[in-house]
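User: structure tokens for this one?
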Amino acid sequence: MTVHVVLVHGIRTSATMWRSQLAWLAENGIPATAVDLPAHGTRMDEDFTLHEALHTIDAAVRAAAADGPVLLVGHSMGGLLSLAYAGGEQTPPVAGVVAVSCTALPRGTALRAYRVLAGAMNTLPGRGQWLTDRVLAATLPIDTRGDFAAGGYAFDAQDAALSSLAALDLEAALARIRMPLWFVNGQFDQLRVNEALFQRLAPHAELIVVPRASHLVTAMRPPVFNAVLRLALATLDAGS
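Assistant:
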């Protein structure tokens, strides 16, 4: 049976961040669903809650699972949520997980510093959009440069989303995950801080570090990331 891919975006952005991957998957005849989490993208007028975010993932996974195995792929916040979901007390209908740019526990000093930084950016003129645009222009290829912004930036949801992530028990979730699992990080990703811990908690997981890539690895080096998806899909095909 054909594997269905469910894609979960990171904080502030939306389903549009996956445009390069959706195009590649479509070219290869692989069904895919990219969700918008609450308070992001097409759901910008909603409030962000952990319950609704996990429900969004669950609804997409169960709809996809009706047609075959599901590969769950999440980036940054979406990766943390995907790990928490896949490692829940009740095992969901997920055949494999690709957790991207998210090997960091969202708690303590690191989380507080991230919230302070996000808050400081919001106080800049235009909420710092000019700075974000300059960074993206300097680091991303022109084909993917607009993907993160295409669905709008969820500035108002940032602090609520970040603070809610502290409630996730990722250590327990990782220890429960038994399906194939890949951690994918850019070489220069700031969220590699707990990479070794994540590997200890899920020793069967594969770690893939993409050279010359940052936190935005999916858009910075899309052919390489799509090759990772090809590997994961081939693994699930062989297993099924």
